[in-house]
Amino acid sequence: MSRIGVVTFPGTLDDRDAARAVRLAGGEPVALWHADADLHGVDAVVLPGGFSYGDYLRAGAISRFAPVMGEVVDAARGGLPVLGICNGFQVLTEAHLLPGSMIKNDHLHFVCREQVLSVERADTPWTRDYAAGEHITIPLKNQDGQYVADERTLDELEGEGRVVFRYEGWNPNGSRRGIAGISNAAGNVVGLMPHPEHAVEAGFGPDGPKGPRTGTDGLRFFTSVLKALVS
C-alpha cells in the first residue's frame, strides 16, 4: 500500500481531512510534523490547507522554512509527487517549488463556496483520473487566494502547459488568467487553491449530479496519485 505523507503546521486545519481522503482512496496516510526533518519514507506528500504559523506576515512565508520543508523541496526536485492545497499551495510558491505568489482576494473578503473548475491538464500524478476539459466541483475557501505572477511567467505557464486548473464561470478571487492550479515543469508538484479533500465522500461534499451533498470530484486527486505510484 502506498504511503502518503500529510504535513501538519501549527494552524493547519485540513490535515485530518486530507488524511481521510488518502484513506478513502486506498492509501495509507502518514502524519508528518513540520519540525521533523524526516519524510519517513513516504511515496508522496500533501501540504494541506488551513493556515500556518507566520501567515500574518505573508501566507506561507514562514512555514516554508520549517525543517520538513527542506526535505520536501529536495524530494520534490527528485521527482516525489507533492500536492499543495490552499495554504499548501502558498507554501509551495514561497518555497519556490512553484512560480508566482498569492495575495489578498481582489474583493478583500473571505470566500467560501462550491467552485467549478476546468481541468486543463490530466497527465500529472495528481490528475490522471480526470479528463482534459472536464468540469469538476470542489469547495473553495480562502482570503489570500489571488494567484499573481508577471506576464512572462504567466506566458511560460501557458506555453508549457503547466496550468492544471482554471476557475469556470466566475473568478472568485481575481487570480490572473483565471488560474486555480499549476504544476512545476516536471509535473510532479501541483498546487491549487480549492480543496479536493472536502469532496471525497458522499453526504459531506458539494452538490452533485445525484443530488445534494453527493459530489465526490475531489477523490480522484488521491486515486490518481496512488495509480501513478504503482504504474
UniProtKB/TrEMBL annotation:
Pathway note: Purine metabolism; IMP biosynthesis via de novo pathway; 5-amino-1-(5-phospho-D-ribosyl)imidazole from N(2)-formyl-N(1)-(5-phospho-D-ribosyl)glycinamide: step 1/2
Keyword set, alphabetical order: ATP-binding, Cytoplasm, Glutamine amidotransferase, Hydrolase, Ligase, Nucleotide-binding, Purine biosynthesis
The protein's name in its UniProt record: Phosphoribosylformylglycinamidine synthase subunit PurQ
Gene Ontology MF annotations: ATP binding; glutaminase activity; phosphoribosylformylglycinamidine synthase activity
GO biological process terms, semicolon-separated: 'de novo' IMP biosynthetic process
Summary of the function given for this chain in its UniProt record: Part of the phosphoribosylformylglycinamidine synthase complex involved in the purines biosynthetic pathway. Catalyzes the ATP-dependent conversion of formylglycinamide ribonucleotide (FGAR) and glutamine to yield formylglycinamidine ribonucleotide (FGAM) and glutamate. The FGAM synthase complex is composed of three subunits. PurQ produces an ammonia molecule by converting glutamine to glutamate. PurL transfers the ammonia molecule to FGAR to form FGAM in an ATP-dependent manner.
Chemical reaction(s) catalysed: N(2)-formyl-N(1)-(5-phospho-beta-D-ribosyl)glycinamide + L-glutamine + ATP + H2O = 2-formamido-N(1)-(5-O-phospho-beta-D-ribosyl)acetamidine + L-glutamate + ADP + phosphate + H(+); L-glutamine + H2O = L-glutamate + NH4(+)
Main location: cytoplasm
Species assigned in the record: Cellulomonas biazotea
InterPro entries given in the database record: Class_I_gatase-like, PRibForGlyAmidine_synth_PurQ
Quaternary data: Part of the FGAM synthase complex composed of 1 PurL, 1 PurQ and 2 PurS subunits.
Pfam family name, one: GATase_5
Enzyme Commission number: 6.3.5.3, 3.5.1.2
